[in-house]
Structure formats: structure tokens, C-alpha cells
């Protein structure tokens, strides 16, 4: 069973850049879209964006100016960068396989606080 | 950008009853690229339905998705205790950004 292992800090200061990575445990990297989704405490799911193995990507319009999703096929890894964070970006961040998600990372609670 | 509106916000039912959850899109969902997820507290969501009506692997047949265009429904025929959770719909197709509905909480009456 493929697994997604997330890594990155659990706390980020306001105005700084949130950076998370997700490592895929098998060789399915070139077969799927790879997504990032977040969930603020007590709230619903929010789609952030996805990337395809060839590098093509799509982002939520309201986050587009601050988000970059990148991919490193040599490491079976994809990453999320979210710049200029505020308290509103505090959430559990999930990496996920597919646009219809069948496999999720373990989730990373990221708190934006000074 | 498509907006998905789920109703009701909260649904209170008893085990054994039938649950009907609605997801309405602000514009037509291309090729019925509409999915449903179930989320329990402190867990990642679980895919139930994709393509509006296809059950994901391992999902019991009491879960049924239906609809097309802008109106979609998730029906749970006979509620089991483990079905009480939050349910989200998601539009995921084509070149448009993906999006989730705001969720429906299914609670025990």
C-alpha cells in the first residue's frame, strides 16, 4: 500500500513562508496528480492546488499569488510553499494522491504565530 | 469559479434511517466530476463516491451517489452507527480549480 509521508515545521511566524514536503513510498509518481489540501481547526476542507508529474499545476485562485507546488521526481517528493502567512493560514495541511483523493498523508498541523 | 453548496448544514437522524445529503453547484460540473468524502474526527477524509455515482473500493452499497449537471445527492440507505460523520462533496474535473463544499454534519438524533 502506497504511503505519503509529510515533513515540515509545525509552527511558522507571520509574514514568513510555510514549507511542507511529501514523500511517496512507491513508483506511482508519474501516474497521478499530487494535491495539497488544508483544514483550519473546526472548519471544512480547502483545496490548495495540485501538480502533475510533468510539472503542470493548478492553484486555488485566492491563494495563487502566494502558493507554489513543486515536484522532484528523483526523490518521489512534492512540496508546498505558502508565502506571507497569517493566522488565517493556521490549519492541518494534507498532501494527497490524485484529484479524487484515495491516499492521504498523515496531516501536519501548522500554526502561524509569533 | 464553481461554488459548491451543501445542504443541510447538519442532519440529525437515528441509526436505521435513510440520509439524503445535497450538493448544488453554481455551474454545471463537467463530466459529472463530483466526489463525496466522509470525515470522522481527527481522521483524514475517506473517498466514498467519484464520478457522481461510482463507489470507491471497499465502500458499502448502502452509500449511493446520484445526480448530474448542478445537482448531486449522496444517499445512505440505512444508517449504521459508524456513518455519523461529516460529509464533503468535491468538484475535481477538467482545467478548473478543484473545490470542496462546506460540509454536512450527520449527527445522531
Our Rg estimate of chain A from Cα atoms comes to 13 Å
Q: Note the total helix count of chain A.
A: 0
What average pLDDT do the residues of chain B reach? 96
What structural class results from the helix and strand content of chain B?
mainly beta
| Overall spatial form of chain B | globular
Give me the Rg of chain B, rounded. 13 Å
Structural class, from secondary structure content of chain A?
Answer: mainly beta
Poorly predicted regions of chain A: none
Shape category of chain A: globular
Run of helices and strands of chain B: EEEEEEEEEEE
Report the β-strand fraction of chain A as a percent range: over 45%
Terminal CA distance of chain B: 36 Å
- What is the subunit organization of this protein? heterodimer
Q: Tags for this entry?
A:
heterodimer, A: 114 residues, mainly beta, B: 109 residues, 11 strands, 49% strand, globular
Summarize it.
Chain A has 114 residues and is an all-beta fold. Chain A has no helices and eleven strands. The radius of gyration of chain A is 13 Å and the shape is globular.
How would you describe this protein?
With 114 residues, chain A is mostly beta strands. Chain A is 0% helix and 49% strand. In chain A, a hairpin with a 5-residue loop joins strand 9 (91-97) and strand 10 (103-104). Chain A is globular. The model of chain A has no long low-confidence stretch (mean pLDDT 95). Chain B is mainly β. Helices cover 0% and strands 49% of the residues of chain B. In chain B, the strands form two sheets. In chain B, strands 2, 4, 5, 6, 9, 10 and 11 form a seven-stranded mixed β-sheet that branches. A four-stranded antiparallel β-sheet of chain B has the order 1-3-8-7, with no helix packed on it. In chain B, strand 7 (63-68) and strand 8 (71-76) form a beta hairpin. The termini of chain B are far apart. The mean pLDDT of chain B is 96. The interface between A and B is medium-sized, with 21 and 23 residues.
